[in-house]
Sequence to fold (350 residues):
Amino acid sequence: MRFLSRPAGLLTCTLLAFGSPAQAAANRQRAEELIGQPCRDDQSAWTDDSVAAWDAEQNGDYITAILSQKRVVSRLCDHVLPWIELAELHVRVDRLPAAISYLQYALELDADEVLLRLLGTGFLRSPHLEPLLDSGLYRDSELFQRIDGLLAPSRRRRAAARRLLERMPVGQRPPNPFVARPSCPGERCGFGDWKVYRDTPIVAAPEGDLVVGHARKDTTVRSLTGETRIYDPPAVLVVHPLTVEQGPRGQAGRSVVVPGGEIVFLLDYHAEGSMGIWYDGRYASAKVGNYVRDACVEPARDCWGEFIDGRGVRDWWFQVRLADGTEGWTNRNDNFQTLSDAAQKAILGN
Fold:
């Protein structure tokens, strides 16, 4: 994924404060030496180069992609993501020493972002950097040593948190599985008339095996309700104060600040980065975003929590009514258009 597709806000949140003018000049010189061209301080034309890098990469022309991406970096020398993407391209052509050099520079810009791309989870982790992590060259590099040192405080925090977790009374933990109902996770999810994309059996109850009917491809069903079942809810160590709304699910609660050092559990996703969490033996809601990491180099609002162990499993079941009136459940959400009526009208214009 090229930098062009990143949210525009990332252009400002990854700026580097190098300190003194002399230090800034030295780092600018280092950046110019790495890419072999001057840093232009001109963001007006970087998008054209980013598109060219993307097109060349999609066509397998990695050399052209690298040249175009270097021009992107030259216009955005103080932004971390173009450097990471330049490193990705070099890994693709097995130029690992250069990739390591670019990542070392990126580490100075934003260590948390580099760690997220290297060691994070899900879509935020860069698959193109995997071969680098598996190489002896990386394990013998200064980059590895620096990253290992940056992770040391987090390892100590999470080790202490595991000991606390082992002693946590059962009453302070969420039920396992935790069942959130009603539940329709996502910004545009909503119950109503859904189109069926594939033939799908429906069963009498969530997790059941008694088939009561079939939703047939290209028909429409009426979705009625849903529930999210969270198995082994993931425990998270709070490393920066987190504000939550504590109260019954689906109702307004009282605002509570969870201090650093506390443990919370992630539950059901709502929308717009909001999730249900479990804190102090009770349900709460919070703006979680993508700000829970394996490790936070600098705990802050955009890296407020560290996973202690595991990620848990979330399974969304929903109930539908077929045209003949049969009602049943399924968890095969990819087989249905799960948009709300309003979202369908907004997207499809009907």
Observations:
- Residues 1-17, 343-348 have pLDDT under 50 and may be disordered.
